[in-house]
Write a structure and sequence with these properties.
By secondary structure, the protein is of the alpha/beta class. The two termini are about 15 Å apart. The protein is globular and about 60 Å long. Strands 1, 2, 3, 4, 5, 6, 7, 8, 9, 10 and 11 form an eleven-stranded mixed β-sheet that branches. It folds into two domains: about 180 residues, Periplasmic binding protein-like II (D-Maltodextrin-Binding Protein, domain 2), CATH 3.40.190; about 140 residues, Periplasmic binding protein-like II (D-Maltodextrin-Binding Protein, domain 2, 3-Layer(aba) Sandwich), CATH 3.40.190. About 40% of the residues lie in helices and about 15% in strands.
Length: about 350
């Protein structure tokens, strides 16, 4: 287990550098370096808008969230990074615990983001919300065929589901919540059933899961909601739809997570990083998350895409986002024990 933890947040600086490459020196005052664990297509349009409106050049380094957090830890005070963006609150909280983030040094409009989507000290701020949902093929499944994520472990779904791989932050966060709500034994049974039922239908990208469901290769998949709605935006006739799970009485509620950002402790351009943070949580920035990505804006004055399930009427699992960091390693241990790849 110690070896597994080292692999996840270790200091293998050489391997990280080779995997991610290098970024330009950030010494210039009109330049800002962003380390991002999000897919470039989901964040670059907002960074381009910020650059156009402020004249501050944004250099973007994109990789997996684990890799960029590892890199920040390995670089320490030598890092050129000014801002960290990740796809999940657990990674942000882990970065905070490692001392890689610092809170903003002056009041700003990040306070517009509700407290449940921010670190207690504001060292990270949620940017956009997402639910972990079931995507189903409408020709193969009825929405009444299942109620809970846990139903996916039932034998009737053998060879009919697609899941993310063990390295997925979405899977790790989801299992963290399920473990907290239901305990180890039920979570182990769920993971064992998930492994059997998915078989070889294990994917590294959520978009691949949505594609497999749309093509009828499987009947169901588990993804963040916005992958489904982005697919439907370009292929409106695709036979897929979203099921928001665990909304029944006694259910745990839907699993929510956020992408978010934090200013790096050793940022060379902290004020510019703060300006970018302010832009990302402003009404203008939040509207782009909604319009371009089909994510839930976290600013209370910005409306989500009307096609999305209404946030206000969705029952949410009662696990604070700030707990996902410390919950991750125990969840990962269960995932490893189940043999998910």
């Amino acid at each position: 287990m110690n070896q597994y933890r080292f692999h996840y947040f270790g200091l293998a600086a050489l391997c990280i550098a080779l995997a991610i490459g290098t970024v330009p020196d950030a010494a210039e005052p009109d330049r800002l370096v962003v380390y991002s664990g999000r897919a470039e297509r989901l964040i670059k349009p907002l960074l381009d808008s910020f650059q156009a409106s402020t004249g501050i050049q944004v250099d973007l380094l994109s990789s997996g969230t684990t890799e960029v957090v590892n890199r920040l830890q390995a670089e320490g005070e030598r890092t050129p990074a000014d801002l960290l963006i990740t796809n999940d609150a657990g990674s942000l909280e882990r970065a905070r615990e490692l001392g890689l983030l610092r809170p903003p040094t002056a009041p700003n409009n990040t306070a517009a983001i509700p407290a449940q989507f921010r670190a207690a000290d504001n060292s990270w701020i949620g940017l956009s919300g997402r639910f972990w949902v079931v995507v189903y093929n409408t020709t193969l499944v009825k929405p009444t065929d299942l109620r809970s994520l846990l139903d996916l472990a039932e034998p009737r779904w053998k060879d009919r589901i697609a899941i993310p791989n063990a390295g997925s932050e979405y899977l790790q966060a989801g299992i963290s919540v399920i473990k907290t709500v239901y305990g180890d034994d039920r979570t182990k049974r769920f993971l064992d059933g998930l492994k059997v039922n998915a078989g070889t239908q294990v994917y590294g990208k959520s978009s691949q899961i949505v594609e497999a469901v749309a093509k009828g290769q499987v009947a169901l998949g588990v993804v963040n909601h916005y992958y489904v709605y982005r697919h439907l935006a370009t292929q409106p006739d695709a036979p897929i739809a979203v099921l928001m799970p665990d909304q029944h009485e006694g259910g745990m509620g839907a699993i929510i997570n956020v992408s978010g950002a934090g200013i790096v402790t050793h940022a060379r351009h902290a004020e510019s990083a703060k300006r970018l943070m302010n832009y990302l949580v402003s009404e203008e920035g939040q509207k782009q998350f909604s319009d371009l990505n089909k994510e839930y804006p976290l600013h209370p004055l910005v409306a989500a895409d009307p096609a999305l399930p209404p946030y206000k009427t969705t029952r949410v699992a009662p696990v604070p986002l700030t707990q996902l960091g410390k919950l991750r390693e125990p969840a990962m241990a269960l995932i490893e024990q189940a043999g998910l790849r």
